[in-house]
Every structure is written in C-alpha cells, then in structure tokens.
Design brief:
The complex is a heterodimer of chains A (331) and B (207). With 331 residues, chain A is an alpha/beta fold. Chain A folds into 2 domains: 46-146 and 285-309, Response regulator (Rossmann fold); 150-281, Response regulator (Rossmann fold), CATH 3.40.50. In chain A, 40% of the residues lie in helices and 18% in strands. Chain A has 10 helices and 14 strands. In chain B, strands 2-3-4-6-5 form a 5-stranded mixed β-barrel. In chain B, helix 2 (43-53) crosses helix 7 (148-165) and helix 4 packs antiparallel against helix 5 (76-83). The chains are: A alpha/beta (331), B alpha/beta (207). The A-B interface holds A 1, 4, 6, 8-9, 12, 16, 88, 112-113, 135, 137, 139, 146-147, 149, 151-152, 155-156, 158-159, 175, 178-179, 181, 184-185, 188-189, 192-193, 196, 207, 283, 286, 290, 308-312, 314-315, 320 and B 14, 17-18, 21, 24, 26, 28, 30, 34-36, 87-92, 127, 129-131, 146-149, 151-152, 155-156, 188-189, 192.
Chain lengths: 331, 207
C-alpha cells in the first residue's frame, strides 16, 4: 500500500486523537491505568502490563494469567490488557500504559509488523517490552522475544502427518492470522515435510484466523466441494476443534484425520478420545513465566538479554498423550 | 438551517478526507510477497557461503562420534549435558559429531556404521527436514537471518546442500567399507530416546 504526503486540516488531529483516546481508555482493561499513581521501582517492585492479543481463546487466557501471576509472585503489580486481535486497540493500550507509568510490558503482539511502532514508542520512553509467543519483525525494539519454535514443531508434526495419512492423499490446510509470523512459520514447517511427497495433494488452503467458529464455517464449505479429503492440518487447536466439528457433523470423522497445534485442553481430551490425531504442544506457561522473570530482572537492573529465546514444541499423539496435560507436560 | 447544513457538510468532508488518508480498515491480501521475509536476504546465498567457507572449520570442532554415541547409550540426559547443543528452553538438544566407522548394514532408513572403539550410528539416506543441521552447525548464528521465516529458508537451503553433497554419497556405500563422516542429530526427549543415533550427514567420505 502506498503512502501519501498530507497535511491534516487544522484542529482535526487533536479532535480525532482525543476521541480515540477517550474511546480506547474505556476498552477492556481489567484495571484502569492512572498516571497519578505511577511510581518508579526504587524498591525493585514495579508495575507490569500484560498486553495480550486476545482473551477470546483459552490458550491466550492461560498465557496472560500465568504472566500476571508470575509477575505478582515476584512482587510486582500486574494488569492484563486485552487487544482483541486489534492492532489499533493494542496501540491505544500502549499509550495508556506509558502514560500511567508502567515499568515493563509483557506483550503478546497482534501483528508482527503492526505492533513494532508501539514497542518502539515504549523503548523511547525507557519502558522495556518482552514479547511472548508472537514475534515482531524488528530485532532492535523489544528487549527480548520468547517464542515457540513453531517451525521445528510443525516439521515434526508434518512427519507424523505423512506417517499416519500416508504418502498419497488429499488434504486441506487452515491458516491462522495473516499478520502473525506464527501462521507462516507453522505452515513453512509443515510444508517443508509434506511437499516432499508429491502424492499428497493440498486441495484447499484457507485462513480461519485461528478462530474455532471461522474454522467450522470454512471447513463446512470446503467439505461440500471436497468430501473425499483424507486430512486437515490446522495452524492452531481452536481451528482444529472447529474443523473436527464440521467433519463430525458431516459424518466423516472416520475418514478425515484432523491435526492441530497448541496443546489446548479440549484438543488434549480429543486426542485421548481418538478424535483429533495429533497436536504440537506449546508451553504457554513456560513462555509467560520466562517473560515475567525477564521483566523482574530488568526492573532490578539487568540489561543483557538475548533477543530471541526459542521454546521447544513437542509432538503429542495417542502414543504419548499420558505424558501431557492441557498447556504443558505432566513432568 | 443552511448554516447548520454547511457546517455538517464541512465536517463530513473533513472526516471523509481523514478516512481516505487514514482508513480504519486495511485489507491485506493473503499470499504474494511475505513481509516477514526481509528484502535483500538470500537464504540460498547464505547457505552456500556457510557450506563453502565455514563448514570445514565447524566439522573440525564437532564432537567425537564414538565418544558421543557411547555416552548416549549410557545416559542420554547426561550426554546431553556434556555434548548437547541447546537453543532456548526445552528438554531436547542437538548433536554435531564427526568420526569414522565401518558400514555394517544398509537399510531403507540409512547406512549403519560401527564406530571404533565403540558405538553405532545411522547415517540417514532420506530427505532432510527441519532446522537441526542449521542449528547444530551454527549456520544461523552469524550472519543471523533477519526474520524467523528467513531462518526457515536458510534451514531448507542447508538441508538441500546436505542432500546434494553428503546424503547422495551414501547410495554407493558398501558393507565393509570405512567412511569418514560428520552429521547432526536431534534428540527431542532424552527420556524417550532409543538408539542408535540417527544422523543427517553433512560430510561423507571414503578415506
């Protein structure tokens, strides 16, 4: 998209910004942020903002609540901000939390490119940002990024896909949000394996935005024209649940194998019940705790952080399901 | 009345102009160029440069295969502590080893080597997947790919070179022959690991 030079009509920017700020301030904060109460962490205790892409998916609820709980365990005040998958709302949260004097931000970004500006703004104000689970496309903005190794996880999942579906067949891929690098990394890892088998034909590839309802709707539509598919690879577990619901309703559960990614509670139960074939277990609690601990260390004076910390992802199938619980392993 | 109308029209024009330049909704097409892949980065060039200029030195610094294979057979977790290459957080690790061994079997999975003085490894002959070689040999460390998806491309290119320049040489390996080799293995879970070590080779030579 091209950008155009422009000059705002006099007074309009202030009016729009004022309306926008007033609107944003009322949206989805568990606690209000008040600049008058901001304090600097001279005692090593600070205020930590947990800005999460959405709370409309249990996986992200676990991520956000774990980060908040760990920050509180470490003696800090912590507040969750829900961006509702909206970069504009996320930017507004940043404006508010910076004005309120927060000392650190734990960010689960809405958009790999679109979230960079907000992170840079925080950096300019001296407020460190630690990205959790979702990468931003800048290495010099966040202090550190703690990210699942989505690519390696989906390579392993892809190998299991070929093992269980076979080297010939038709399949569908459901993609997540287009602006999220996790979508691309998972698809890259899966295709790194599956594309080496020319007998496996992808008959449809559609986005369902990591959303269960959207996946249900998309899968229902795909099944009407492709009732003979053998498998569906989904870029997250919410979409896997929606896809399985469509498959089951169509009476094709014995024919079509569904694969997810996340390790969400309902998919772990579904694998145990023999409904969904496999998922890749991410460790949201591990990532969230690590981010909170990094923020704690920053507040206490540490400044040397590795930019990216990958967190391993593990294949979960019926063969090893007893080693896992929702959102993690039993170990 | 006409004054109010004029004010409203001006306001609408101002808001319309603002929305034209700063739309509330932006449609982003799927597919096409990927913004998460940096312009100017060429994974194929980076992989070839690594293979040509730095792989030899990396192999010289790889761990001794017999030592690692024996340690893995004894205690995978302990072997991981001693020889494992770890990135980030997780219970798994990668290995990068080199040595010599005699071909004792050829299967559909690969070529089985018995090492001196002890240990067994399997050099895999199938396609190479994932980022194990990239990470184990350090190909992604310097220069670091600008984005994670560039890193994926680098892994693919390194795998392609491994297939073209090392794996393919295993086709002619004969039982009883001695091979010099270097390769990488991924151990996802030491607790569940069962031998032998399965390596994606980056070097295969008949001395």
């Amino acid at each position: 998209m091209s950008t155009r030079p422009l000059a705002w009509p006099h007074g309009v920017p202030a009016l729009l910004l004022g309306l926008f700020a007033a609107f944003s301030a009322g949206c989805n904060q568990e606690d209000s942020a008040d600049a008058s109460t901001a304090k600097k962490p001279s005692d090593g205790k600070g205020r930590v903002a947990v800005v999460v892409s959405t709370l409309n998916n249990p996986w992200f609820v676990v991520l956000a609540e774990t980060a908040k709980a760990r920050a509180e365990e470490l003696g800090h005040e912590a507040v969750i901000f829900d961006s509702q998958n909206d970069p504009a709302m996320e930017a507004s949260h940043f404006d508010n939390l910076l004005a309120a004097g927060y000392d650190a931000v734990l960010l689960n970004a809405t958009d790999a490119d679109g979230s960079v500006a907000a992170v840079r703004k925080a950096k300019e104000r001296g407020v460190p940002v630690f990205c959790i689970d979702r990468e931003i496309n800048a290495d010099d903005a966040a202090v550190a990024q703690i990210l699942s190794d989505n690519y390696a996880g989906c390579v392993e999942l892809g190998q299991y896909f070929v093992e269980t579906v076979g080297e010939e067949g038709k399949y569908v891929e459901l993609l997540g949000l287009s602006g999220d690098n996790n979508t691309g990394n998972r698809s890259d890892g899966f295709h790194n394996v599956v594309d080496r088998f020319p007998g496996l034909e992808m008959v449809a590839q559609q986005t369902a935005n990591f959303d269960r309802s959207k996946a249900l709707e998309v899968t229902e539509s795909i099944l009407q024209s492709n009732p003979d598919i053998d498998a569906i690879f989904c870029g997250n577990d919410a979409m896997a649940m929606g896809a399985f619901q469509a498959v089951n309703t169509a009476g094709l559960a014995d024919q079509i194998k569904v694969f997810g990614f996340d390790g969400a509670a309902d998919v772990i139960d579904s694998i145990r019940a023999g409904k969904i074939v496999a998922t890749a277990m991410q460790f949201p609690k591990t990532m969230a705790r690590q981010a909170a601990e990094f923020a704690d260390e920053w507040i206490k004076g540490r400044r040397d952080f590795v930019q990216k910390t990958p967190v391993a992802v593990e294949l979960v199938t019926r063969d090893n399901i007893e080693d896992y619980a929702a959102y993690g392993s039993k170990e | 009345m006409s004054g109010h109308l004029a004010t409203r029209l001006v306001a609408l024009a101002v808001i319309g102009t603002a929305l034209y330049f700063f739309p509330l909704v932006r449609l982003v097409p799927l597919g096409g160029s990927n913004p998460a892949q940096a312009e100017g980065y060429d994974a194929a060039v980076a992989a070839t440069a690594f293979w040509t200029d730095r792989l030899g030195a990396a192999i010289a610094g790889a761990d001794d295969a017999a030592l690692v294979a024996t340690a893995m057979a004894d205690d995978p977790a302990e072997a991981g502590e001693r020889f494992g290459i770890r990135k980030g957080v997780g219970k798994g690790f990668d290995l990068f080893i080199q040595g010599r061994g005699k071909v004792v079997d050829k299967t559909t999975a690969g070529v089985l080597l018995r090492l001196t003085p002890a240990g067994v490894v399997l050099l895999r002959t199938g396609p190479v997947f994932g980022s194990t070689i990239r990470d184990a040999v350090g190909a992604g460390a310097e220069p670091r790919p600008p984005t994670s998806r560039d890193g994926n491309d680098l892994a693919n290119e390194i795998n392609r070179l491994a297939e073209e320049r090392a794996v393919v040489l295993l086709v002619d390996a004969q039982v009883g022959e001695t091979l010099r080799f270097a390769g990488c293995a991924k151990v996802s879970s030491p607790a569940r690991w069962r031998g032998p070590l399965e390596l994606s080779p980056v070097l295969v030579e008949v001395p």
